[in-house]
Amino acid sequence: MRLNRKLIELIRIRLILIFLILSVRVYSQSAEEFYKAGVENYQNENYKEAIELLSKAINQNLILADAYHKRGHAYYKIGESNNAISDYTRAIELDPSNSETYYFRAFLYFDRDSFQALSDYSKAIEINPKAEYFFGRGGIKSHLFDFRGAIIDYSKAIDINPDDWYAFSNRARCKKEINDLSGAILDYSKAIELNPDDWVAFRDRGLIKIELNEIDSGCLDFSKAGELGYYQAYELIKRYCN
Predict the structure, then answer these.
(1) CA dihedral sign, ordered 170, 175, 176, 182
(2) What's the helix, strand, coil split of the chain in %, to 5?
(3) Is residue 87 exposed (0-12), middle (13-18) or buried (19+ Cβ within 10 Å)?
(4) DSSP states along 200-223
(5) How many CB atoms lie within 10 A of CB 209?
(6) What is the pLDDT of residue 96?
(7) Is 79 left (phi over 0), alpha (psi -120 to 50) or beta?
(8) What is the pLDDT of residue 5?
């Protein structure tokens, strides 16, 4: 009789364990399913639905870093930057090795907390030195009037991606700020070579040429900027070229 009771108790314990194991598996699968559905909705630009599904995934698995990361993206897309920052921060706490999360949080901190943005860009670079991370940090350094530091970062971005016309254009602006006018012209010229539809580069290169007393060449740049849709260029032509 005692043996039967022990056997029954052993079977009961085993059944409980099996139930718990199956429950955990179903629980995990549900979180994964919500996550996948949320990502799919995000990719289809159904951002509110994505937030709802990713929130369900998070409610079932509080340590799902990717769900916080993706929900942060979705919050950003609907203009809820505070929630996006909160989600990126939680994702970083759960997975501090994901460089992209630092990068996206830095982007949102750009106008709110420049030094936090700088720190996040630097952390992203430390983890994975990608061109866009150097570009972003160059932008925040320029915003903080560290033009020489920005030039270094834009140069590293260009080394990684030599076809990035925007990096050349931004580096040119920084060179102009430190009075490296010839260097700025070279960078604007490269930006124009890579993207001949950039009226900003034509305008700004033209202004530098005027400053260097290269009137005819500067006026040609203004004219090209006007052709590309910058109609205020004709005011510059009136002022400097007639």
Answers:
(1) negative
(2) 80, 0, 20
(3) buried
(4) HHHHHHHHHHHHTT-HHHHHHHHH
(5) 22
(6) 97
(7) left
(8) 61
The pLDDT score that the predictor gives to residue 10 is 52
Confidence (pTM): 0.84
Low-confidence ranges of the chain (pLDDT < 70): 1-29
What are the extents of the domains in the chain?
Answer: 1-96
Per residue in 115-160, pLDDT (tens digit) is 999 999 999 999 999 999 999 999 999 999 999 999 999 999 999 9
What architecture is the 1-96 domain classified under in CATH? Answer: Alpha Horseshoe (1.25)
User: What are the tokens at 146?
Assistant: 């560290």
The alpha carbon torsion through 158, 159, 160, 163 (nearest 10 deg) reads 50
Position 112, amino acid: R
Neighbours of 142 (CB within 10 A): 20
pLDDT in the model for residue 27? 45
Residue 41 burial (C-beta neighbours within 10 Å; 0-12, 13-18, 19+): buried
